[in-house]
Structures are given as C-alpha cells and as structure tokens.
C-alpha cells in the first residue's frame, strides 16, 4: 500500500441493478436499458409422445411452417421448477381437521402421508414454456459484445408517446406469434406486470423464491440504489 493511497476516493461498488439489462416493467411490457421492449407470453404445451405417428408428422410440419413464416426474432424459454407442495399440504391438513366423516378423514390422512413420502423420494417438477417477443425501435444500437452489455451505459429514456407507439407495434407482433402457435393447438397468454415481476424474481432468486413469496405489486416499495448514493439511516 502506498503512502497516500488512503486519500484516493474509494471506488463505489455497482449494485446488482447495474448488471441487469432491464430498466423497468411498465404496462405488462419489459423495457430494456437500450430502449427496446420485450413482451413475454406463457404458452400451453402438447404431449407429443401421446400423439400418433401421423399426428406427430403434422405437428412437426406445422411448427416448421411457423418458424419459416417469422420475419423477426423470438426467444423460446423452457423453465423447469421444483413444485412447492407445502401450501397444498397445509390446506389438506386444515381440511382434515374440519372433516367429520371418519372414513374420509382416514383417506385424507393416507393421501397426505403418500404425498409426504413422494416428496421425500423424488423432486416433482413443473415445466413452463415462454415466448419472448422483442421490439427494437429504429436507430437503437444493438450491443455486439458482453463487455458492452455490462458496461453500465446510461439507459435510454422513452417518452410516453414513444412507449405507446412501440407497445402497439410490439403487441401486433405478439398477436402474429400467438396466432401461429394457435394453429399448433397452443394457447398463449401475455404476462401482466405482477406476473413479470414474479418471473424475474424467481429467475434471479431461485432459493429465496422457494422460501419467501413475493408480495403483491401494490405492496412492493423497494428503493432503487443509484451509484454514489447512500441510504440514510
């Protein structure tokens, strides 16, 4: 350590927010720091293995036609999560205590014991499918390297008029995707603001999310910590 090193200003550590490309979530739309938008849809699934060979060939052909018809990029995300049956077991125990029929009470007790044993022996997984539809406004510079992504460049601020215009165009793109997937027998639902917050909360905090559920949107009042600012005690 040099003699006068202590006189140098300490480098302020960047918060986690500085490394996220998300600027905000507004009106069920994810706004990125570069001004681009994302619309996320939750999609249903088809059990491909239960289809006949002919039905499988038809689905493959329809999916191929859907991909070939795309004029803009999309992202398909498959998310596997362990199912938390704690709340379900708690409700069953509550019903068990209220049940007066001894036969039903015994059956419910056996069912609860079966679920406990099943959970102890195997991880019960839930798989969800998402389609991310992007919108890049004109004159947006797309980052070409990971260094540019984490460089902490200042976010682009959209005016209300710009946001409304871009949102309409994004929804039109999402409708095209939903219609194309609908031909495959899939149903797509756009995630709202609360659902988007919960999705990213679960992605970035998988262990915490399993133990601590997120509060409703109207009860969330988290502060945004900016570089160089300190929270008053």
TrEMBL record:
Domain of life: Bacteria
Domain TraC-like: 28-134
InterPro entries from the UniProt entry: TraC-like_dom
Record-given protein name: TraC-like domain-containing protein
Organism, as annotated: candidate division CPR3 bacterium
Lineage: Bacteria, Bacteria division CPR3
């Amino acid at each position: 350590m040099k003699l006068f090193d202590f006189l140098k200003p300490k480098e302020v550590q960047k918060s986690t927010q500085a490394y996220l490309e998300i600027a905000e979530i507004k009106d069920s739309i994810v706004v990125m720091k570069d001004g681009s938008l994302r619309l996320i849809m939750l999609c249903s699934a088809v059990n491909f293995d239960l289809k006949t060979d002919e039905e499988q060939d038809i689905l493959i052909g329809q999916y191929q036609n859907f991909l070939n018809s795309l004029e803009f990029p999309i992202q398909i995300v498959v998310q596997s999560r362990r199912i938390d049956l704690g709340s379900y077991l708690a409700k069953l125990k509550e019903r068990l205590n209220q049940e007066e029929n001894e036969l039903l009470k015994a059956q419910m007790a056996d069912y609860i014991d079966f679920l406990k044993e099943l959970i102890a022996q195997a991880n019960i997984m839930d798989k969800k499918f998402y389609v991310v539809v992007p919108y890049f406004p004109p004159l947006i510079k797309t980052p070409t390297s990971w260094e540019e992504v984490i460089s902490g460049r200042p976010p682009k601020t959209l005016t209300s008029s710009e946001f409304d215009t871009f949102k309409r165009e994004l929804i039109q793109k999402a409708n095209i995707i939903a219609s194309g997937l609908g031909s495959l027998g899939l149903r797509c639902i756009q995630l709202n603001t609360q659902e988007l917050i919960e999705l990213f909360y679960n992605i970035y905090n998988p262990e915490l999310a399993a133990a601590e559920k997120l509060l409703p949107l109207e009860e969330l009042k988290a502060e945004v910590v900016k570089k160089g600012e300190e929270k008053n005690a």
